[in-house]
Amino acid sequence: MSRTTSERALILFFRLIMAWTFLYAASHQVFVTWSVADFLNSTKTFHPLYVHFTGPAIAPILTFLVGYGHLLIGLSLLVGLGVRLSAIFGIGLMLLYWTAHMNFPYISDTNNFLIDEHIVNAGVLVLLIVERAGHVWGLDTWAAELPFVRRQPFLKWIVG
Q1: 82: left (phi over 0), alpha (psi -120 to 50) or beta
Q2: 63, burial (CB in 10 Å: exposed 0-12, middle 13-18, buried 19+)
Q3: pTM of the predicted protein model
Q4: Distance CA 23, CA 131 (A)
């Protein structure tokens, strides 16, 4: 698919702002004392579901996965390597955060009726997948040419 320079620049812009979103979140979770339990204990609409993840057995594991998940997604988007896979995980996180912030029909406050930045971010991540954003000034193009990637269907799909 042939794109103009302005189209490529716009795709790169969206990839980089999503990278910043995840890296900034990681900076508040990986490099400081933080627990997912505090966040999940304050959920409203889906509290009966999320409260199960606040126990002492699972909260530390989930805290590690969320913090380092943000870091890995952000780094992947930043360098444009494995964008398809990282964007899928990012979409999943955005949808989970959307429900966690929900006080139906409002999201986080009365200014957000059903839709908030989590849905917008998920939409941008879908766009990055569709537009193959890792191939726009990213490392997915380079990785797709590696012989071992070409031989492995899953790796080929990740950088596809």
Answers
A1: left
A2: buried
A3: 0.94
A4: 22
